[in-house]
Amino acid sequence: MYPYSPRTENAKCVICGRSSSLISKAIGICGDCIRKKPEEALAAVRRVRAESRRYAHSKGREYG
Ligand SMILES: [Zn+2]
């Protein structure tokens, strides 16, 4: 049992909060959310691009 995997540095989906190696760190959205919530994913992409230096948190969303 390891506390965490040093090699695994998964990105976290800003919409559902799930972390996966399949999530693009550039946009921070998992494939499921892109498919199931395209509108929310698009909005999140815009936010990430707008504040590319800051971490977008799933909490405190100002839209919706
Ligand atoms: Zn997701």
Short description:
The protein is mainly α and 64 residues long. The protein contains 2 helices and 2 strands, in the order ββαα.
Architecture overview:
The chain has two helices and two strands, in the order E-E-H-H. The chain has a domain at 11-50. The longest helix is centred in the C-terminal third of the chain and has 13 residues, at 38-50. Strand 1 (11-12) and strand 2 (19-20) form a beta hairpin. It has 64 residues and is mainly α. Zinc ion (ZN) binds next to helix 1.
Poorly predicted tracts of residues = none
**CA-based gyration radius:** 12 Å
Helix content: 25-40%
Distinct ligands, ions and cofactors found in the model: zinc ion
SSE sequence, one letter per element: EEHH
Give the overall average pLDDT: 77
Q: How many beta strands in the DSSP annotation?
A: 2
Main β-sheet description: 2 strands, antiparallel
Percent range for β-strand residues: 5-15%
Q: What is the helix tally?
A: 2
Strand order within the widest beta sheet: 1-2
By secondary-structure content and strand pairing, the structural class works out as mainly alpha
* Outline type: globular
The N- to C-terminal Cα distance equals: 40 Å
Detail the topology: elements first, then pairings.
Elements: E1 11-12, E2 19-20, H1 31-36, H2 38-50
Antiparallel strand pairs: 1-2
The chain binds zinc ion (ZN).
Features:
binds zinc ion; mainly alpha; 64 residues
